[in-house]
Design a protein that fits this description.
single chain; mainly alpha; 12 helices; 0% strand
Length: 253
């Protein structure tokens, strides 16, 4: 998907578009994620396990997702992107976006504890919190995401489910196989190597998952708000403005 091809997409087209963006921009997206997760790598290499280690890793993963979301948004809008572009935008929108993501995550976890289904419904409702905060600069990204998700729960859930299967099931399988190989080679499982491997898998997985959810955000805007039509109209207006007034013919004078 790009600015010139924004249109309602089927689920298959959306996933294919995510694969295309990931393949073409993998170096930028993965490098950005790696740089933001460097503190997690440092803790792994030093075999340091601070309190709430999982929460710290999750926090940096969310921050990386913010940067990648902006980069994918630039790609969709037909703009060049870079590692520094993603990091700068992430830092400029960090407070609002991170606060919204933490609140949404808390609601999802709480809902999951209440027999799982409420957690899934909350995850669907808040699927677009990051792009709403980063791309639109919404000061109320939870409300904005809920508006985009309205009446589209089944489709959003299907995309989320397929994204999870495509991203995390292979990651878990690779982690399990690698852990078994490490254990068989060294005679015992190495927690340091397993932690480093887990972080590396995260570096590869985050760009794809965020690409899928960002494309889903744009697709919902196209479907519910005619975002593609608005962009086309704006481009036509800009073209007329650049061309200037059209001289009148002699007959019109």
């Amino acid at each position: 998907m790009s600015k010139t091809t924004l249109r309602p997409l089927s689920v298959g087209e959306l996933l294919d578009g995510a694969f295309t963006i990931y393949r073409r921009h993998a170096i930028t997206l993965v490098t950005t994620t790696f740089l933001i997760l460097l503190p997690v790598f440092a803790l792994d290499l030093a075999s340091i396990r601070p309190p709430f280690n999982t929460w710290i890793s999750s926090l940096f993963a969310v921050i990386a997702g913010i940067a990648v979301t902006w980069q994918v948004s630039e790609i969709v809008m037909g703009q060049p992107t870079s590692v520094m572009s993603g990091i700068r935008r992430c830092l400029s929108r960090l407070n609002t976006t991170l606060g919204a993501k933490i609140l949404a995550g808390f609601i999802v976890v709480l809902g999951t504890l209440l027999f799982i289904i409420p957690g899934i419904l909350a995850a669907i409702r808040y699927f677009a919190v990051t792009p709403a905060a980063v791309f639109e600069e919404s000061e109320h990204p939870l409300k904005r995401s809920a508006a985009l998700a309205a009446d589209s729960g089944g489709r959003i859930f299907l995309v989320w489910l397929l994204m999870t299967i495509l991203t995390f099931v292979p990651a878990i399988a690779i982690g399990g196989i690698a852990g078994a190989v490490i254990g068989a080679t060294t005679g015992r499982p190495s927690s340091k190597l397993i932690s480093i491997l887990g972080t590396l898998i995260t570096v590869i997985a985050i760009p794809f998952s965020e690409t899928v959810m960002t494309l889903l955000y744009f697709d919902q805007r196209v479907r519910k708000e005619g975002f593609d039509v608005k962009l086309a109209a704006a481009e036509i207006g800009e073209a007329f403005a650049e061309a200037g007034p059209v001289p009148m013919s002699p007959a019109q004078k």
